[in-house]
Every structure is written in C-alpha cells, then in structure tokens.
Amino acid sequence: MLIVADENIPLLDAFFGEVGEIRRVTGRTLTREQVADADILLVRSVTRVNRELLEGSRVRFVGTATIGTDHIDLAWLKAQGIRFAAAPGCNASSVTEYVLSVISLFAERRGLDDWTALSVGIVGVGNVGGELAQVLDRLGFKVHLCDPPREEREADLDQTFVSLEDALDCDVVTLHTPLTRNQPHATHHLLSEQHLATIGADQLLINSGRGEVIDSTALLHRLEQPDAPLVALDVWEQEPAINPGLVEKTWLATPHIAGYSLEGKMQGTEMVYQAMCQFMGLPVRKKAGQFLPEPALSKISFTSAAEEDVAVRTALLACYDPRRDDARLRLTLQGNSTERAAEFDRLRRDYPVRRECSSLKIQLKGTSKSLQDSFRAMGFKLKI
Ligand SMILES: NC(=O)c1ccc[n+]([C@@H]2O[C@H](COP(=O)([O-])OP(=O)(O)OC[C@H]3O[C@@H](n4cnc5c(N)ncnc54)[C@H](O)[C@@H]3O)[C@@H](O)[C@H]2O)c1
Ligand SMILES: O=C(O)[C@H](O)[C@H](O)COP(=O)(O)O
C-alpha cells in the first residue's frame, strides 16, 4: 500500500505509518509521475486534484486535511469511483480565534472600551461562520448572518438572515464562504467594486475564506481612496504569488494561516485518517488528542480587579496575536515575485506552534459570573 502525502500534513507517521509506505511530497508541485503508483493520496489546499494529476494512476482514495475543497475536482473523482474525504470543521475554532483577535485589535484601534458595541456581519454561516456567530452572540455582540443558501433551505425555521448589502453595513464584515463558481450563489468575486464602494472608513472587512471571494483588483482600487475601510486579509487571489501592493494597503495581512492552530491541523489529519479507515475497513486506532503536546503557556490568573473586556481580550491575544504573522509576511515583500511566492509558502510550512484557547487555563479569583461566561464562550478552561 503506497500513500503519497503532502509533507505539511502533521503526524503522517503516527496516523498512517501502520497502514502503508508513506511517500512525502511537496504539495504545491506534486506531479502525475509522483502519484502514478499510489493507492492513497493525502493533500492540503495547495494541490489541485483533477484529471491532469490522477488519470491513469492507481489512486482509489483522496483525502484533504482541510475544510476547503475548491482545489479538488469532486465531479471527476466521483465519475472515476475514487473515494474522497475532507475534514469539515477541523480548524473552525482556529479561524474563529483569528477573527476574534482581529476584532479585538480593531476595537482597540477605535478606542472602544466595550468591543461588544461593534456590530458584526458574517457572510457564510457554516462550520466556521456558525461557530463564530455563537461565540460572538454569547459575548454579547450584535451579529447579523448572511447565508442565502441556508436562508433558502431553512425558510420554515426561526433563524433570521440578512442580505449581503445589510451585512456589509455592519461595523465588522467577515467572510466565511467556500469558493464556488458556476452554481447558484457562486462566491467567486462575491464582493465586487460596487459592494466595496459601500464599505466605509469606519468599518473593518475581514477575509479568511478564500482570496477569490473578493475582486482584489477592485479592492486595491478601493483601498487607494481616502475613505477606504480597514481590511484584514488572511487569504489572497493567486496564492502564493500574492500582490505586494495589496499587502501594503492591508491593515492586517497574514499568509493563509487563520486555520493553523496545532489542534486544527491535527484534527484535519485525524478526520482523513478516520475516513480512510472506514474506506479500507480498518479499525480506528489513533486519536489526535493522544498526540497533543503540553502547551507552552498553560495558565493565566486574573483577580477581582480585572475589567471584563480587558481580561478576556488579554487572554485571547496571549493565545493568538495576528500582528506577529502580519509582521512576518511584510518582511518577505522584498525580492522578485518568485522569491516572494517561495517566502509565502515558507511562512506556512515553518509556521510556529500555535495553540487554541482551549489549551489555556484561566484562573479567576472573585470575579463576576459574566466574566466567567465570557471566558467559557471563547473555549478557555476555567479554574475558579
Ligand atoms: N483561512 C483559513 O485558514 C481557512 C480555514 C478554514 C476554512 N477556510 C475557508 O472557509 C470556508 C468556509 O468554511 P466552513 O467550514 O464554514 O464551510 P461550510 O461549508 O461549513 O460553510 C460555508 C457556508 O457558506 C454558505 N455560502 C455559500 N455560498 C454563499 C454565498 N454566496 N453567500 C453567503 N453564504 C454562502 C454556505 O451555505 C455554508 O453555510 C472554507 O470553504 C474554506 O475555503 C479558510
Ligand atoms: O480550508 C482549510 O481548511 C484552510 O484553508 C487550510 O488551513 C489551508 O491550509 P493548507 O491546506 O493550505 O495548508
């Protein structure tokens, strides 16, 4: 049994070592020749899996250790009878924490003591947008949900949805749709020049879905205008060859790492392992939890003097502060486009260990019930 796998998938040996021989490859440059004799192909989002790659190969199972599937030709795999599995929701908490941290920094920049005064429009309310909505709601934010496919499917339920135009009216607009083309509610260039014109200087636009959901030529043009909104981009058109001019105009620019918590990546591996076991009729023997190392930061204490907003946001930024990733990306902007693209991938390959809020214990002494609820909402473990 030969397993060809992207070298950036963590715990390959631990999960798949007993199943077969593993051939590690660079996902971005994987060739037909490298995969022709494989039985199983395991990828991340940088490998296009289609007829060009797999026609004539032995591959019977393809797994992507990611949420997004826009790099996979699902219809072609199905027509060939090749089993496919993704990892839905694996890094939803990681992306949620990225968005919360960005909102926290935006509130600080706006001089707001109470960050929950910000209204948040979530475009795409699936695993990621749904988890984010729940956390924001529990924290006391006013949240507006935009998801036309769900709105159609759930017409008879109580959930209220808003139009894209109404979502774009919120203080913070955050995009969490998949990248889709040629289908109802397709998201390719969902945010056009006309939409971008309606987002003003006091607003924040975040994209951690896929770069192509925003028309980035129009976005760059919008950011050159004096009343431009603040923008935080984690995903870009044409990764890894991203536009350095757009990075310069972006407030927080990160190299597609919103989902890169250790927990998120390990759950991605675990989910494709489980799907592969099911496909091959093998027992599931491994769990991601058994491989999670001790976190470097394990406990933070707050006393009764702690102000609610400050305490919650201090702990959040201690877990993840996007300014570090922004600084690293900006350092790579020199050089020609080939060098910059290589640096973008290097930042992702050599990403430092980042742990989720759930890895951190919060010790609270004599603090309010509402502060405890806020920490719980964000997934922290409480020690009271
Ligand atoms: N930056 C990162 O590291 C990172 C990490 C994880 C996921 N992602 C991206 O985020 C996307 C969303 O992830 P998810 O787990 O929530 O996916 P999901 O499939 O669970 O949810 C996506 C939601 O978007 C909705 N949607 C589709 N078209 C829409 C439209 N035109 N307008 C509004 N909503 C629309 C769907 O109905 C669905 O509810 C993934 O497809 C992936 O591309 C990025
Ligand atoms: O879709 C996803 O899960 C994310 O975009 C994922 O974090 C992308 O990471 P990559 O596969 O490119 O390493």
From TrEMBL:
Residue sites binding NAD(+) per the record: D147, T177, D234, G259
Chief place of localization: cytoplasm
Record-listed E.C. numbers: 1.1.1.290
MF annotations from Gene Ontology: 4-phosphoerythronate dehydrogenase activity; NAD binding; protein dimerization activity
GO cellular component terms, semicolon-separated: cytoplasm
Record flagged with keyword NAD: yes
Active site: R210, E239, H256
Subcellular location: Cytoplasm
Annotated TM spans: none
Top-level taxon: Bacteria
Residue intervals of the D-isomer specific 2-hydroxyacid dehydrogenase NAD-binding domain: 116-258
InterPro entries per UniProt: D-iso_2-hydroxyacid_DH_PdxB, D-isomer_2_OHA_DH_cat_dom, D-isomer_DH_CS1, D-isomer_DH_NAD-bd, Erythronate-4-P_DHase, Erythronate-4-P_DHase_dimer, NAD(P)-bd_dom_sf, PdxB_dimer_sf
A UniProt-annotated Pfam family: DUF3410
Keyword terms, alphabetized: Cytoplasm, NAD, Oxidoreductase, Pyridoxine biosynthesis
Pathway: Cofactor biosynthesis; pyridoxine 5'-phosphate biosynthesis; pyridoxine 5'-phosphate from D-erythrose 4-phosphate: step 2/5
PROSITE patterns: D_2_HYDROXYACID_DH_1 (PS00065)
Role description: Catalyzes the oxidation of erythronate-4-phosphate to 3-hydroxy-2-oxo-4-phosphonooxybutanoate.
Assembly and binders: Homodimer.
Family: Belongs to the D-isomer specific 2-hydroxyacid dehydrogenase family. PdxB subfamily.
Name the UniProt record assigns to this protein: Erythronate-4-phosphate dehydrogenase
Taxon lineage: Bacteria, Pseudomonadati, Pseudomonadota, Gammaproteobacteria, Pseudomonadales
Gene behind this protein: pdxB
